[in-house]
Structures are given as structure tokens and as C-alpha cells.
């Protein structure tokens, strides 16, 4: 009897589907509550102008996340592990403190996003926020890495609601395409701040930590690299296509009517009278799914990094008794975030501002450290960066540093004035 042979292309697709996960989850989680708010504000304020910036940011995200994934498959270690080994305790402690504070502020924003989207569906935040926190925490505590990854990949599909919203609106596609391929920059403070927020919500310090740690936790090796790279490229492209669709949805409805919004829930509410309740429901569903995804991933990136940096056992494949610090920090961040959100009259915007400011400061420093690590021949061998990768990554680091400085100087003078 002749033995059936699986075609090579079928086998390759099967391998890719097995490797798929870290890249897609990291990029999808970037479209979190602050991210959706940023894209909604950009679309309602500048129309389609920011689509070209999204295109540039996509290239930058692919370069940075590929470096993190490559270091993960080559070394089998997370970013924080390598930082501690190569740069010492002081730099590691600074990076971990900044990451912890920034991620706590951003996790608060995710819980606030869950609460806001639930209220758009008529559910009280005092029910939705704790319920979501319990659901996420139990899923992580009880599941293995493979189970949690599948859960997160399903949540990533919630972003399709923004694609559906745009096709319901049916924007002028010719204008959308022209704006995407024709960069338009306005050199004023508000534009610079919006650009920093767009870059900072897409290429994040926590994303670098999570990408490398999840690749290592999944047990991917050098033989899996080409599929891991494909996962990174596909994930970044998918995540930023969704970002572009959020901008298109708000530009085609809010911008042309002179309506500027500052949050995702405002955008959802305003869409209803303009293009119908279906658009509001889809936009709200996307916000809920994105917030649930991000509130699962963000605390994980923090706990991975913290435990790597200080030598504690970590990983979703370990039991609670084997990694109590890992699971304790994870649930602690979520519980504290829920408590903050449920405090009546708590000023959430300053917390988000603080987290974004810390991310703006931490990101260029993280990029410099990642560049040094990925160019270390002793560490990476033949897998160290190529020249073109260094050119792109260095240019991106300088670009983000300049915008970060402009953002911090502008914010300083605004606070004084």
C-alpha cells in the first residue's frame, strides 16, 4: 500500500500555525484602550493624515519586534534576563521600576476601557471591571501557555469589528489610498504630541519584553526562526491595518463633521447618530475585546520582565506553587488596577499621562539596549544584526528620541503655564 505523503506547502502552513502567536498577540494588544483613543483622536483631528505615519510605524515595529523574537529563539531567554547579565543590576532596576509604573498606569487604562465599553452596552462598571479581572486572572492561573495563547488569539479577532465598521461607513477609498502613500507632516506641538502617542502606543517597551519572553516561554528554537519571523511580520501588519481602520472610521465620520474626541468611548457614542447604532455596537465591541486582550498581556509582560530581572521562577507552564512571585505580581497588578478604576472621581487621565510619559522616556533607552544586545557577537553569533537592520533601528531610535524630547518639553511648559 502506497504511503500518503503530506505536500510540502501543507506541512509549512502547519508549522507556521503551530508557531503563530507571540507576534500576532503582541501587535494586536497594541490596539488597546489608550491606543484606540489615540487613533480615534488622530483620525478625528487630522483626518486621513496619520495613515502615512501608521505605514512608517509598521516598518519600525517589524524591525524592533524581529530583533526581540530573534534574541528569544537564539538565547532562549527574555530581554530582562539579558539586560541583567550584560548591563548589571542598576540599569536593570531602573528599567524594571519604570516598566512597572508605566505598565500599571496602562493596565488601569485597560480596565477603564473594559468598564467604559461595558457601560456602552448598559452594564455597570462595578460589575464589568471585577468580572473581567476575575475571568482573565483565573484563565492565566489555571491554563498552560498553549491554552492562554489560544484564548489571546481568539480575543485578537475582536479587531475585525473595526474593519466591519469602516465598510459600513464606505469612506472615499481614493483619498484614503493617497493619504497612506503621501506623508503629510504639520510641525506644531499638538501634531508632534499626537505623533509620539501614535508611535508610543504601537512600539512599546512592554511589547519588546513580552515578545521575547513569550518566544522563549513557548520553547521556540533557531529551527523555528523563519516561521517566527513570519509571525512577527504578519502580526505587525495586521495590528497596524486595524489601527489604520480605526483612523479611517473616525476620519470619515468625525473629522468631516468637525468633531474631535479624546477617548474611544466618545468616538463610539458620536458614531451612533452619524452612521447608526450598528457602528456604535461594533466600535464598542472592538474596544471591549482589545481591552480584555491588553489586560491579559500587559501584566504578563511586566511579570515576565520582573521575574527574569531578579531571578524568580516564571512562565505560564509552571504551577502557582512553583512560581508564586510570577503569579502574585500578575494578579496584584490587575487587582490594584480594578480598585483604582472603581474609586469614584479618580483622575484617570493623569495616570495615563504618567504612563505614556514613562514609556516615552523608557522606549529610546530600551531600543539602545536591544540594539547593543542584538549586535553582541558573543551572545548572538551569526544571528547578530545585519547592517540594514541597524540603520533602520538606529534611525527609529533617533526619531522617537527627538519626538519624546519635544513631547516632554511641551508638557513641561504646559504644566508650568
What does this structure look like?
By secondary structure, the protein is mainly α. It has a single domain, classed as Up-down Bundle (Amino acid/polyamine transporter I). Helices cover about 80% and strands about 0% of the residues. It has 19 helices and no strands. The chain has helices at about 10-20, 20-30, 35-45, 50-75, 80-85, 90-120, 125-140, 145-155, 160-170, 175-180, 190-200, 205-215, 225-255, 265-275, 275-310, 325-340, 350-375, 375-380, 385-415. It is globular, with a radius of gyration of 21 Å. Residues about 15-20 have low confidence and may be disordered.
List keywords for this structure.
417 residues, mainly alpha, Amino acid/polyamine transporter I, 19 helices
Summarize the structure.
With 417 residues, the chain is mainly alpha-helical. It is built from 19 helices and no strands. It has one domain (16-416): Up-down Bundle (Amino acid/polyamine transporter I), CATH 1.20.1740.
Amino acid at each position: 500500500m502506497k504511503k500518503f505523503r503530506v505536500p510540502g506547502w501543507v506541512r509549512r502552513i502547519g508549522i507556521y500555525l503551530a508557531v503563530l502567536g507571540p507576534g500576532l498577540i503582541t501587535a494586536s494588544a497594541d490596539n488597546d484602550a489608550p491606543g484606540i483613543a489615540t487613533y480615534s483622536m488622530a483620525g478625528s483631528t487630522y483626518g486621513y493624515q496619520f495613515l502615512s505615519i501608521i505605514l512608517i510605524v509598521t516598518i519600525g515595529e517589524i524591525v524592533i519586534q524581529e530583533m526581540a523574537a530573534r534574541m528569544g529563539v537564539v538565547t532562549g531567554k527574555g530581554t530582562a534576563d539579558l539586560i541583567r547579565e550584560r548591563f548589571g543590576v542598576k540599569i536593570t532596576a531602573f528599567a524594571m521600576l519604570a516598566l512597572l509604573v508605566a505598565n500599571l498606569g496602562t493596565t488601569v487604562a485597560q480596565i477603564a476601557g473594559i468598564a467604559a465599553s461595558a457601560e456602552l452596552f448598559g452594564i455597570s462598571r462595578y460589575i464589568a471591571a471585577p468580572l473581567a479581572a476575575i475571568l482573565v486572572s483565573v484563565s492565566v492561573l489555571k491554563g498552560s501557555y498553549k491554552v492562554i495563547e489560544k484564548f489571546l488569539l481568539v480575543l485578537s479577532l475582536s479587531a475585525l469589528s473595526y474593519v466591519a465598521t469602516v465598510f459600513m461607513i464606505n469612506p472615499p477609498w481614493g483619498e484614503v489610498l493617497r493619504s497612506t502613500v503621501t506623508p503629510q507632516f504639520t510641525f506644531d506641538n499638538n501634531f508632534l504630541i499626537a505623533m509620539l502617542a501614535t508611535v508610543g502606543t504601537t512600539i512599546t517597551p512592554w511589547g519588546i519584553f513580552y515578545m521575547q519572553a513569550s518566544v522563549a516561554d513557548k520553547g521556540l528554537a533557531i529551527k523555528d526562526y523563519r516561521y517566527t519571523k513570519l509571525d512577527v511580520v504578519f502580526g505587525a501588519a495586521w495590528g497596524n491595518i486595524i489601527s489604520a481602520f480605526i483612523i479611517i472610521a473616525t476620519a470619515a465620520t468625525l473629522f468631516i463633521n468637525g468633531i474631535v474626541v479624546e477617548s474611544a468611548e466618545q468616538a463610539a457614542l458620536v458614531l451612533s447618530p452619524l452612521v447608526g447604532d450598528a457602528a456604535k455596537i461594533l466600535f464598542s465591541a472592538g474596544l471591549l475585546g482589545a481591552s480584555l486582550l491588553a489586560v491579559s498581556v500587559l501584566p504578563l509582560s511586566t511579570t515576565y520582565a520582573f521575574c527574569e530581572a531578579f531571578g524568580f521562577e516564571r512562565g505560564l507552564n509552571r504551577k502557582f506553587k512553583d512560581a508564586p512571585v510570577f503569579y502574585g505580581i500578575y494578579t496584584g497588578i490587575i487587582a490594584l488596577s480594578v480598585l483604582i478604576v472603581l474609586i469614584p472621581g479618580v483622575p484617570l487621565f493623569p495616570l495615563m499621562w504618567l504612563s505614556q510619559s514613562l514609556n516615552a522616556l523608557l522606549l529610546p533607552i530600551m531600543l539602545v539596549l536591544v540594539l547593543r544586545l542584538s549586535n553582541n557577537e558573543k551572545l548572538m553569533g551569526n544571528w547578530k544584526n545585519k547592517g540594514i537592520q541597524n540603520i533602520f533601528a538606529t534611525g527609529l531610535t533617533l526619531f522617537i528620541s527627538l519626538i519624546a524630547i519635544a513631547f516632554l518639553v511641551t508638557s513641561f511648559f504646559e504644566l508650568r503655564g
